[in-house]
Every structure is written in C-alpha cells, then in structure tokens.
DNA sequence: GGATTATTTCTCGACAGTCGAGAAAATCAG
DNA sequence: CTGATTTTCTCGACTGTCGAGAAATAATCC
C-alpha cells in the first residue's frame, strides 16, 4: 500500500535536502545551496528563512571575502541547536561521548565494564547514571539532547522505533530495552545499532562523498572475538540502506564446533578468536568456548603460525575458509560488492587470506563476475563513531524537516 | 544523495495511487476512490478528470443502482488502453500470452522448445516471430503493446533497465539481451524476471490484499530440476520490493558434488532433481549431471523411498538438509519470514520434510525466534502468471502517472 | 571619485497542486 | 410534487516551486 503525497511533504523533503547539503559542506551560500540541491533560488530563500527562524541554521560569523559582486552570506548549522550522546558498548569498556549538532566532540569518558557483575539491571543503572554525568559535566539539561545513539555487537531488534538488544556477546540473550530505560524523562530519540552496521554506514557515506565513484553497495566485516557484518546499499530513492545481518552466527559447517551462542557450526565458532584458539590447541570442538581471549594469546598463536607451526597455521586457514564461504554465501544472496575488513583480527589477515580466497572462490556467481574486492580498513573505532554521528544527525535532521 | 521533490511529483504519486486502487477493485466510485486513497474529494475529481482525458480510465457502462441519493458513477481502467505480452520460458516449452490493460487473457499459445537446437540466436528468431504472430492473431499493432514481460529460471541482470539473462539452465552462460532484441521497433517496455521472483511477487500482492494481516516479508522457494528463490519485502515507503537471490547456486557443502553450473557443492547439486537422482543411485558426486530428469523417474525414486528403500530415502533426506541449511542461512542474512514452497518438487515434500526441518533448526536466530512457517503452495504456474501481470501492469501504471 | 560591471541575494507574480466547504445533481420515499 | 438523501462537482483558500528581474554590494575602470 503506497501512501499519499502532498505539498507539505514536498517541503519536508526539500528542507531535508538543504539540511543534508549544509551538513556535508559545513557552510554554504545561497547560490551554493541552490546548485547542490537543484532547487530554485527562490525556494532556497524560503527554506533557509524558515530554518533560520526555527533556530536550526544561522548566517556564519566569518564571511568569505574576495569576489566581485555582492558578498555571499554563508549559512551553517547552529551547533547549539541540540546535542547527541554516543554510547559504544564493547566487551571490556563502555565509552560515552557528547557532541553538538555540528558533530564536534565536546566531552568523552569511558567506564570499564566489570567482568564479574554481569546482569542487565546493574548495567542499566550504570548506563543511566553515566548519561546524567555527561550532562552535568557540560551543564546541559536533558531536553537539549536530541538523540542517544548506542552501539553494541550482537543482534538488534529490526523494528525501527524499538531499541532492544536481542542477543549480544556481552549480555547473552538477556534482552535490554534502552528506549524503555530512558522513556519518560528523556525527549531524545534513542537508537541502538550493531557496531558493524555503523562501520558500513560510515564507509558508505564516505564512498558517497567521493567523486563520481558511483557507489552502489558495500559490506563491512569485523573480525575479533565475534564476527560482525554490515551491509550498505543504495536504495531506490537514493538513500543509503544499512542492515546488520546475523553473519557471525550463520551456519558454516557442523565441523566448526560449538559456538558460544549455543548452536553448532556458526562462522564465529571457526573464525572468532576463541574458535581459532580452540583449533590451534586441538581442543575438542564441542568444548565450551573461552569467555575471553587476550590479544596477546592470539598474537602468540599467530607468531607460531608465521614460523610454520602446523596446527596454528591450520587454525587460521580454517578461519579464513569459514569467512570465505560465508562471504560467498552472502554475495549469492545479495550481489557482488566490495568487502571491507576491520576489527582487531585484521592483524592476522596475512594468515587468513589464503583460506579466505579459497573459500570465496567456490561459487557460480563469483566465477561469472570475478571475486569481490577485499580490502583491510584499520581504524574501526573511528568508523564506528562516524557511523553513529552519520545516523544520529541524519535522524535529527529529518525530524527537524518533518516538524 | 537524495533527490528534490516538487508539486508535479506529488501529482504523479497521487495519480499512481488512484490507478493502483482502481486496478485492485476493478471499478470504484468517486467517494470510494477518496476513501481508498485518503485523498480529498476535490483532488480525486482533478485526477480522474485528467486520467479520463488521457484515455486511461472511463466511466463504467454498468452503473450500480439502488441507493437513495445521486447515483454513484463507477470509474474503471479502459481495457483497450494498452496490451501486455507475457512470455514464460521453461526448459521444455515457451508460453506466449496476450492480455489487455485490465489483465484479462486474450490469447495464448505454446511452442515446445526443441531440445537439440540450443543456441540463443536461433531462439531469438523464434521469439521475435512468436511475438509478431501474437499480434497478428489479435489484429494489433506493435505500438499498442505497452509491456513485454518475460520470465525464465536463472540469473537476471539486476540493472532495472536491462533485460539480460546472465545465466540460465536453458541457455547456460550464453547471455541473451531481450531489450536489445526488440529495441527499435517496439515501444513496449521489456522486462525480464526470474520465475520464482514472480511467485514471490504474486504471493506478496495476495498477502497485501488480505485483511490487516500486516505483511512484512516472505520467501518463495521453487523445487524442481533447479532450485529458485524469490524474496518479497515491504520497503520503507510501503512498496513491495522483490529480489531473486542466487539461492540454487549458493554454496551448501562440498559433499554435495558437482553442479551443472560447473561449481561444486551448490544447493541445487544436492536438492535439484538431478542431485537427488545421483544420490539415490549412488553415482559418484563428481559425475556430470543429467541434462534432464523425467518426472516419472523421480516418481519411481520417491515410491521406493516411501517403501523404505534406504538410498532413495537418504537422497531425499540429503536434499531436504541442503534446502534447510540454505533457508537457515538465508534467514540469518535477512530476517524471519514465512516460506512458501512451490514447483514440481513439492510432490516429494513428505520425503524432504525431515531433512529440511533438521537443516533449518541449526542456528541461533531460529532458536531465539522459533522456526519459520513453511507451507506448500501448489499452482506455481498461475502464481508466475499473476506475478507477471502484477509487475507489468504496475510498471505501466507508474509510467502513465509519470507522463 | 564616480560610473560601470559582476555577482549574489531577495522579492514578486505565475503556476501547479491539495483541501474543505458548500453548491449542484440525481434519485427515492411519501 | 416535495423533501430527504447521497454523490459529484466547483470555488476559493492555502502551500509550495519556479523564473525573472529588482535590489544590494563590492571590485574595477577611467
């Protein structure tokens, strides 16, 4: 069932367009906005006047000099128009950041997760307190925060309005509903996303900004204790569509052994750190996986693999194979697209590559279209943060345009 | 990059809305259109007047009688406004159908595909000739045909404007570009879709029509000599989005043996008719697959499986397992959705079911959300045809609205 | 220094579209 | 024939976009 359209929707769409252009370029003049959006000059006047009246954009202090005619006046988003809180939950630490509406970082602190006291209710309290602390440190009130963007590894409720964590390596299948946690007191929109989804979002935004590269789709794979996948595709209306399929716990092969999710044969059970560890030490594959593998331990296995140790090399090869087969299956179901590999596991990419290429090359589609481009991207943390901002600010912009 | 909006686009969208409503209900009065679309009465007047002037809709002859006040005048799409040609290519026969703009069948004939003379150029000639014949029999000119909708099993170019068959069981990897074939002489829009995609389209349209069932997504799987998958999902703007992932040639397990696509371990190599045959007769799995398996042959294997013959039962079980694992992987990458099984292979569903359920139940997601609903749908041929019409008429409608 | 030129922003009227309200049309009941 | 009822049609108000040209303003030319 399609939905009806109206002139107000037109204005919303075009306002959003102006905001998006302004966000990309930081500040633009009247004529530049017109050129970037394709809107007529008169329309730009109307929209900027409205946004200025609403306090969302302002004429920039510093005006550009030099041209011949009437000097251009630059519009820019008002930084103090609202604030965004970004929360990154990882297995050992939780990072809280505050940015303004322009996306510049104002404050940040981390709290290490105590490994003993698991349990969601304890964490919920810590979480809410940390947000309050963030406000106090910057002397802000709750209603100035327009969005709280949270990320974790794991499975997230796809329903757009919910912010429920369905399964995560940190909390297991104890569900956690962040929207409910902040429900009455906070007006902010609460969003929860898979970490690797945000990486894909950031990479896609970057690709879109690049000169006419003609971005269509891409996938981000994060290697570490667990395996994450984010897929970004350009939708029919030019918008970037991002999903976080359940790649790490997709079935690879029963031989991969017991996964910490409780199933047998997940990709993660072969390619996650604990899977590699288990294979390298020839632990029976139905052993309950290690809760946590120090990176030093992994480095040791990698070193011995590089020195020619047979089982260590085999473990990485099997991990690569699981990833390669998974990628092959993923591409069968979507389409050919470039793959970006991130996460702590990239430091072993030399050891994984052989198995990975072998695993990828076993399908009709890849024979027809050639193997996908696979590249390693290093700064996962920055990408996750960029993805947070990209999403949160985008949502805020579209809410402003809708109002 | 989003795209700008304008008042003309609003009219396009709303015209399309009116056409869609009219197509669903055959004929509707002014007030009914208003209720169905949510548009104001005055707007409906403007749009219907325009469409009537363009010759796309007309006031129906037969008016409904009985009420008290002014009698309602029913609008209905004009059948003679244009025509659609539907071509279904299957391995043994090609079916050509002609329908009017209302979707009623006017003419149909079949031509059996000669199994010896493969080769696309010969087929191209036959194809073009058949289309001409269809026109002559109904005394139509080429320019009265607004769409030619073609279906085949296999891989289709995803690019929306192209109509290129990339790989098919019928022509192998000899590509065939139908749009180019009809390029200068025909004004009709040429579309080519995977057969199972059309099944999914038809099922989704049906689900959408049904009372508030809240359709979100579904998958159709076709079992036969080859294995097809169509996935239909409701997009962000209420439109139905359909894709035909390359499911049959997704990697299952190396043990599945040689597939006729040339790769090893495809789902089809285990679950396609020739795969089942091969396993039942204990032919080595790297044997080059049979080009064609008569259904009688399959029936014999099924009969002996039902009588307890070990290898025959095993073959079907392995086929079910391959399908189940594939479904599990597919659902990992998309989301939980109901599965509809069609095609000639459904007559062996009792034999496949055990393996299928076992194969499906091996994943985290399915343990969290429960197994998907799987149901058998019998009349695949009708669904394919319905899907053709659904798509072709939809495209025509949106082109009319755009004009 | 004053006129000219180039450039940007702003404003006005035309045009397209939707909407609500009420007039007009057409039928039925009494 | 009259009034009630229901549906369709029309009119004016409102919102939005667009093109053209007026207004603003700084650099340049003489």
Salient structural properties:
homodimer; 403 residues; alpha/beta; Arc Repressor Mutant, subunit A; Nucleotidyltransferase, domain 5; five-stranded mixed sheet; 13 helices; 41% helix; globular; DNA-binding
- Integer count of domains of chain A: 3
Helix content of chain A: 40-55%
- Secondary-structure element series of chain A: HEHHEEEEEHEEEEHEHEEEHHHHEHHEH
* Chain-averaged pLDDT of chain A: 90
N-to-C CA distance of chain A: 24 Å
Assembly status:
homodimer
User: For the record, what is the CATH homologous superfamily label of the largest domain in chain A?
Assistant: ATPase, nucleotide binding domain
User: Mind telling me which CATH architecture of the largest domain in chain A this is?
Assistant: 2-Layer Sandwich
Number of helices of chain A: 13
Largest sheet of chain A: 5 strands, mixed
What is the third-level CATH name, the topology of the largest domain in chain A?
Answer: Nucleotidyltransferase, domain 5
Number of strands of chain A: 16
Name the CATH class of the largest domain in chain A.
Alpha Beta
Largest interface: A-B, 58 and 58 residues
Spans of chain A of at least 5 consecutive residues whose pLDDT stays below 50 are: none
Residue share in β-strands of chain A = 15-25%
Structural class of chain A, by secondary structure, is alpha/beta
Tell me, briefly, the overall form of chain A: globular
Q: How do the strands line up in the largest sheet of chain A?
A: 6-5-4-7-11
Radius of gyration of chain A: 23 Å
Organism (chains A, B): Ensifer adhaerens (Sinorhizobium morelense)
Protein name (chains A, B): NBD/HSP70 family sugar kinase
Keywords (chains A, B): Kinase, Transferase
């Amino acid at each position: 069932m399609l939905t009806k359209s109206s002139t107000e929707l037109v204005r919303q769409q075009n306002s959003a367009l102006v905001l998006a252009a302004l966000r990309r370029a930081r500040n633009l003049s009247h004529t530049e906005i017109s050129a970037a959006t394709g809107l007529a000059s008169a329309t730009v006047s109307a929209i900027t006047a409205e946004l200025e009246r609403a306090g969302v954009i302002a004429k920039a202090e510093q005006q550009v000099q030099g041209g011949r005619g009437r000097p251009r006046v630059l519009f820019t988003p008002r930084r103090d128009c609202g604030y965004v809180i970004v929360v990154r939950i990882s297995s050992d630490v939780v990072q809280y950041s505050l940015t303004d509406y322009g996306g510049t970082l104002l404050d940040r602190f981390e709290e290490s997760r105590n490994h003993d006291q698991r349990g969601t209710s304890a964490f919920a309290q810590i979480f809410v307190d940390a947000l309050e602390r963030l406000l106090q440190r910057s002397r802000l009130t709750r209603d100035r925060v327009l969005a709280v963007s949270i990320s974790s590894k794991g499975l997230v409720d796809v329903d757009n309005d919910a912010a429920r964590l369905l399964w995560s390596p940190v909390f297991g299948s104890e569900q956690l509903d962040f929207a409910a946690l902040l429900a009455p007191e906070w007006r902010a929109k609460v969003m929860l996303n898979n970490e690797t989804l945000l990486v894909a979002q950031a990479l896609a935004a970057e690709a879109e900004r690049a000169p006419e590269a003609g971005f269509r789709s891409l996938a981000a794979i994060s290697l570490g204790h667990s395996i994450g996948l984010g897929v970004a595709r350009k939708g029919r209306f030019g918008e970037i569509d991002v999903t976080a399929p359940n790649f790490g716990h997709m079935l690879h092969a029963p031989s991969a052994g017991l996964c910490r999710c409780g199933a047998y044969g997940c990709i993660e059970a072969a390619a996650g750190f604990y899977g590699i560890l288990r294979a390298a030490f020839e632990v029976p594959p139905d052993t309950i996986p290690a809760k946590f593998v120090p990176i030093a331990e992994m480095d040791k296995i990698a070193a011995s693999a590089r020195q020619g140790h047979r089982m260590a090399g085999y473990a990485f090869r099997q991990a690569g194979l699981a990833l390669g087969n998974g990628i092959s299956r993923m591409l069968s179901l979507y389409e050919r697209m470039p793959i970006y590999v991130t996460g702590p596991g990239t430091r072993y990419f030399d050891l994984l590559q052989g198995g990975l290429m072998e695993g990828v090359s076993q399908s009709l589609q890849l024979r027809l279209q050639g193997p996908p481009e696979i590249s390693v991207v290093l700064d996962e943390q920055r990408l996750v943060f960029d993805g947070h901002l990209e999403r949160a600010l985008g949502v805020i912009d579209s809410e402003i345009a809708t109002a």
